[in-house]
Amino acid sequence: MNLRQRAARYARTKGRVLVRLGAWSVLEAGQTFLAGYALARALDAGFLAGDVRTGMFWLGSAGAAVVVGAVGTGRVYGVVSALVEPVRDRLVTGVVRRGVREADPGALSGLTQQVEIARDTLAGLVLVSRSFLFTAVGALIGLFSLDPLLLAVVLPPLLAGVALFAATLRPLARRQEAFLTADEALAEDLNAVGPGLRDITATGAEAQVAENLGRRLRAELRTARSLARWSPARVAALTLGGEVPVILLLVSAPWLLRRGVTPGALLGALTYVGQSLYPALQNLVHGLGTSGARLTVVLRRLIPPEKPAVEKAPRASGPSPEPQDAPALALSDLRFAYGPASEPVLHGLDLALPPGTHLAVVGPSGTGKSTLTALVAGLLTPDAGTLHLHGHPAPDATALRTLIPQEAYVHGGTLAENLTLHRPDPVPEDELLAAAEAVGLLPLLRKLGGPAAHVDPSALSAGERQLIALTRAYLSPAPLALLDEATCHLDAEAEERAERAFAARPGGTLVVVAHRMSSARRADLVLVLDGPRSVCGPHTELLASSPLYRDLMGDWAEVPDTRVG
Description:
This protein has helices at 3-13, 15-47, 52-101, 107-146, 148-193, 197-202, 206-228, 231-251, 253-258, 263-302, 369-377, 415-419, 429-439, 442-448, 462-475, 492-503, 518-522, 539-545, 547-553, and strands spanning 329-336, 346-353, 358-362, 384-389, 392-393, 401-404, 413-414, 454-455, 480-484, 509-513, 525-528, 535-537.
């Protein structure tokens, strides 16, 4: 469904608001009608006829209409707010949903900038479009009331100007979108070049970077010139619809006067065109011509196209990765460094985890534990090597993984809304309570007042926020859970309970960046990160073969094995 169809569907749901908008606009348009009509009557029936009192009466009527119109204008702004703010709320909801559920990297920009652009621009467009429509209707009725010949002179060039302007809207929107895309691409490259100037110089990449930036600059220049070529068309539309009628009225004045048009009616017609039609058309051309094209571009980015409904065969609850025999996580010769001149954090790492494996990642500070989870989560891109989740390349496997970082995210709303953030469909309360019981959230859930209780994130401790985030991930349909020190604010007993719950999750695979070395004893496999000397194996084998692992374990090496069998 395209934007026009969505707009029509939304308008049908706002019928009462549109009726109120029309009613106040009619009141506002009354001053447009009287501006020319009262002036004509004041001149013809008043001052030219020697009746000053009648002339002053009509001028006073025009002044009173201005006051009444101002009341209508004030009411219009309130109604426009009722029309536009729900659109903003829907856009914010959509942006947040994609940002949280789909890990959309553009969500922050959409929420902080593009939504506000859409809200402000839409309000402006509603105002200028409504103003032109009711102003034009009021002026045209006034012209017909004064003399139909006046309407015959003014209407054809006005319609021609509006038609010419309408014909430019679609190509203008396409060129505006191309220009914004080129501008954003240039800004993205410039943002990347600035912090990396030292590395660029050190590696001798100045010429290559300059060539890339030059290509971006030339692309933006081409789109800017293409956009500028349409400016004369808008000027021509404004001239044809707003200035040509004045010229025609002046040129045809003798002919009009010979056919019974009064001097007052001619002056009223000039007033309609010069003070009402031309300013309204000018606002429409500048508003729709620039802001309208920009709004179209922003809405296309904020509102993804609706996908046709596809009937799917029923499937069992829980993750069902494809292909079934592929490793849950497969790394091959994975390499990553923070910058071209930096030492690699991960060196040719190889790893294959069967589905259902519980892996603990340990190592000294700075060896890449959090970097590894960020790569698996898709937050970073490897410099070399491959990374697959259940047979799918990492960039295409967003739905197959969920990351729980050290600083847990909890938003306002109900506890159930927080816990089911990753579930597209409603979650039965018994499933929600079972997950809370498994992870260890149940006491906090009861303390807060149940799933329907509203949550104040600032009133929760860091550990309580972590329990909520862990339960949310447990309820996620993603089969691979990444815990990056996600239990650091829990005591040892609560940490063990949460890890055991994830390890026992049907069809689930668990990767834990260990906060305590006891986590490694519970895992099926332990990955010891140590640069090119990284090793992976069961706890007992690593105790015998890896001096670094024995040093990391310390006194934990003598504790009986509590690994989940």
